[in-house]
Amino acid sequence: MKNKYSSPMDRVGLKVGGVPEHFNFPWRLAIEEGLFREQGVSLHWSDMSGGTGQMIKGLQTGSIDVAVVLTEGITRAVLQGLEAKILRVFVASPLCWGIHVPYHSGFTAVNQLEGKTFAISREASGSHLMSYVLGHKAGWKQELNFNVVGDIYGGLWALENNEADAFLWEKYTTNPYVGQKKCRRIGDIVTPWSSFVIAARNEVIQNHPKALEKMCTIVAKKAAEVKKSSRTAEIISWRYNIDLYQVKKWLSQTDWCNVPGNLNARHEDVVSYLLNLGLISSNESNDWSKKLFL
Known about the structure:
The chain is α/β, with parallel strands linked by helices. It is built from 14 helices and ten strands. The protein has two domains: about 10-95 and about 195-290, Periplasmic binding protein-like II (D-Maltodextrin-Binding Protein, domain 2); about 95-190, D-Maltodextrin-Binding Protein, domain 2. Strand 6 (about 115-120), helix 5 and strand 7 (about 145-150) form a beta-alpha-beta unit.
């Protein structure tokens, strides 16, 4: 039977942005296999190495319609006025951030980083917000200092050239660089919430709700297949240049979200944390559920 959306003229175009990392492997596979196109969605994927800060900017300017974005970053942005909504949790498991320092530095413990300079990809990015979470968890009193570096490569450069004392990034992504002695990892910090959500601009939600629903359903199904496949670890290792053992370890810790869940229950802790850290105001946190979700 011919698909009623088979004509390019009938397809809904969606511009989706996400980090070029292993978490988004299900998106890349679904695109390569033509799964969105089959269901009438013409999906254009943009790799955004600048992370959450770059995606928030993209949603603001309309250069992307949808972002596969860190939970804490998009939550803060929407509560501070970004015209977007969270559609669904994409990665339900927490994210493990590596705490990296210059390879030849004398830093050996996290408590030595109080008052030091942290490299961050952008303001309001995950590397920015998680630095506050780290400071809060460690009980630091001194103000944090930041150097905006653009992306992971800027962060590594900053460490190597004494432009930063520390840099937070997802630890499996940085493993190859740790092995190359471009930096040292002296600890980890795990997010107290789900890693990634799918968010879309309000205008796109209003104009193309069915296309967005199809998109979410397709990628959730593909993620479930990826999780079950015995070939996944080997493919991700090759594609993303991560040691096979590390990929297997990462997969065992990662759960993509395959069904819509109770977003309110998942997000209460996120909002409370942002408020307690002073990253949002009390007024911004009011009616947070209505602001964040459909």
